[in-house]
């Protein structure tokens, strides 16, 4: 099928990229030791260049932030993108001061991380909303699912919970209504098809598509592997729920410093721009839409 060919080509390209990265020895991934943030001591009113380290996940986010990076450079701000390979490290790195900001998560995920780890970080600006989609290279409709089929979903609480809600919307399962936004497999009350749900790390799920019947794949990973929203066999329609808006996060302590707030405001404004909209339209294959750009979440001077 077309989807299988796309995934195979993308996997080959990813392996080649990993080989080149290993040979080059230089990487901005979350696996390296960060040098520490620099925006904390920056004063945007001076002529000295300011460096802001922004944690992201997935290659598509480098494209999403390219227009903002160019705009900020004209204002004397060097936006350094630190690309992490998973959803766990960026908040820890932000909380520990290794980066200045991150932009990879929606509101429910951020709140779950705060509740679990006590991070003192918060939303300073909204970015986009995207559907969470079910992909397959074996079937073209959820109606083709049968007993014994395997569906892979993310194993973290918030993405996994949203994935289960997608499966419920698709009529595959029924969840306990009291489970809220973050149900687990233990909250499944009824299987309308006798599928097996396999929980895996979000960053490896797309590579398992040849081995499972279908999989819930986060959009940044889907884009990195050449998938489009139109390739999905089902997607949720919860695009009006603010809890699923993605965001830019900062350390709470930094928001008491007017100089830092001024720099962060420029970062948020640079992202919430026509340049970013053009990337959504030209490169994001139907996945992303702007969300909450009219909300000012930073402290006022």
Automatic annotation (TrEMBL):
Tagged with keyword NAD: no
Cross-referenced PROSITE patterns: PROKAR_LIPOPROTEIN
Record membrane topology: Lipid-anchor
One CC-aspect GO term: membrane
Localization in the cell: Membrane
Signal peptide start and end residues: 1-21
Alphabetized InterPro entries for the sequence: Lipoprotein_NlpA (IPR004872)
Record has Ribosomal protein as a keyword: no
Principal location: membrane
Keywords: Lipoprotein, Membrane, Palmitate, Signal
Pfam families (UniProt xref): Lipoprotein_9 (PF03180)
PANTHER family named among the record's database cross-references: D-METHIONINE-BINDING LIPOPROTEIN METQ, D-METHIONINE-BINDING LIPOPROTEIN METQ-RELATED
Family: Belongs to the NlpA lipoprotein family.
Protein name in the entry: MetQ/NlpA family ABC transporter substrate-binding protein
């Amino acid at each position: 099928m077309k989807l299988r060919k796309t995934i195979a080509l993308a996997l080959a390209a990813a392996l080649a990229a990993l080989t080149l990265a290993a040979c080059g020895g230089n990487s901005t991934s979350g696996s390296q030791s960060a040098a520490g943030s620099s925006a904390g001591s920056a004063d945007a009113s001076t002529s000295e260049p300011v460096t802001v380290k922004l944690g992201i996940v997935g290659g598509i986010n480098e494209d999403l932030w390219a227009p903002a990076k160019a705009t900020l450079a004209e204002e004397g701000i060097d936006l350094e993108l630190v690309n992490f390979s998973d959803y766990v490290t960026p908040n820890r790195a932000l909380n520990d001061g290794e980066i200045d900001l991150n932009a990879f998560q929606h509101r429910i995920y951020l709140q779950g991380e705060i509740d679990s780890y006590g991070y003192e970080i918060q939303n300073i600006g909204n970015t986009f909303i995207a559907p969470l989609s079910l992909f397959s290279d074996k079937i073209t409709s959820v109606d083709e699912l049968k007993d014994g089929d395997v569906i892979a979903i993310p194993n973290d609480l918030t993405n996994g919970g949203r994935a289960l809600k997608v499966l419920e919307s698709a009529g595959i399962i029924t969840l306990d209504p009291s489970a809220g936004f973050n149900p687990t497999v233990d909250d499944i009350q009824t299987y309308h098809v006798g599928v097996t749900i396999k929980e895996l790390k979000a960053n490896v799920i797309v590579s398992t598509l040849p081995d499972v019947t279908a999989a819930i794949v986060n959009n940044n990973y889907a884009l990195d592997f050449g998938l489009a929203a139109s390739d999905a066999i089902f997607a949720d329609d919860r695009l009006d729920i603010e809890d699923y808006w993605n965001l830019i996060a900062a350390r709470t302590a930094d928001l008491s410093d007017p100089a830092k707030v001024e720099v962060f405001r420029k970062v948020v404004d640079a992202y919430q721009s026509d340049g970013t909209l053009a990337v959504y339209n030209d490169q994001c294959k139907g996945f992303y839409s702007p969300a909450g750009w009219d909300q000012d979440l930073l402290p006022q001077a």
